[in-house]
Amino acid sequence: MVTPKGEMASSAVSYHGTVNVLQAAVADCGPFDRAEWFALLAEAGQEPLVAQAGDVSLMLTLANGRIEPLRNWYAFTWRPHGDNPVLLAAIAQALRSRAHRVTLWPVPDEDGSATRLSQAFRTAGWRVSVEHCDRNHVLAVSGRSFAEYWAGRPGPMRTTLKRKAKKVSVSIHDRFDTAAWADYESIYAESWKPEEGDPVLLRRFAEAEGATGRIRLGVAHAPDGEPVAAQFWTVENGTAYIHKLAHRESARPLSAGTTLSAALFERVIDRDRVDLIDFGTGDDAYKRDWMEIDRPRYRIDCLDPRQPRAWPALAKRMLARAMRGR
């Protein structure tokens, strides 16, 4: 248990090496805010450092000589649990006893997370740099039907679907399906995508989402029955999340990816009645065709000027700012 000194001394900060403390603290959240997600990361080898003050928690880990978010590349966002500014500042101050540097990303700000975090660390005496580090493309359905949404898509997309839709068949699973997942892994291996980062963790995540009925696992088959495109989505709390998609390069002329995407958009809009579709991070051109809103993600880099280990990085930061000001 750590009690920060000074004006925030009344806010006790505790540290935990387990994510179980979040079980009662997080509800009605997205897939990357739940204790179950952080437990998967811990089981995959990351060591949690959960900093808590009252009902506010930061899911952290020690890595690369600093404190970083407990996250991996599958997560769309990372943010604090709880928004009390006094408690956030208390945690920020207490973390000065743990590291000379705290770097947090990719933090959203449409909910105020980046603003609150950066202010909390400044209040606690850190030197804070906030930079745009990624993009998040989303679609606000705004009460539209799929047909109304589709009518607003670029002409080439609509033409492609009209010409190619009948050339493939589509199945969508709302429970984890072993054969469909095997199809996904086979398709991914022959796609344009880089090698899968942690296929075991991804499968365990998909199995957990399938057990609750949140999964939407789509597979498109060519006329000869070969699976040629696959997509892994989840749906909860009015939002559909597009996690993974891939198609076989050898089947590109079928445009199976477009047909499968359209089928999944129709499913989550017309049947699941979602309010938002989240295409994750990255600025791929095809995401702009399907989505309508571009939201920034931020990296918040905090250095403690009282610690000599932070001075080289602070000097480098100051030099970079001076060069940009020329």
Automatic annotation (TrEMBL):
<dbReference type="InterPro" id="IPR038740">
    <property type="entry name" value="BioF2-like_GNAT_dom"/>
</dbReference>
<feature type="domain" description="BioF2-like acetyltransferase">
    <location>
        <begin position="160"/>
        <end position="288"/>
    </location>
</feature>
<dbReference type="InterPro" id="IPR016181">
    <property type="entry name" value="Acyl_CoA_acyltransferase"/>
</dbReference>
<protein>
    <submittedName>
        <fullName>GNAT family N-acetyltransferase</fullName>
    </submittedName>
</protein>
<dbReference type="Pfam" id="PF13480">
    <property type="entry name" value="Acetyltransf_6"/>
</dbReference>
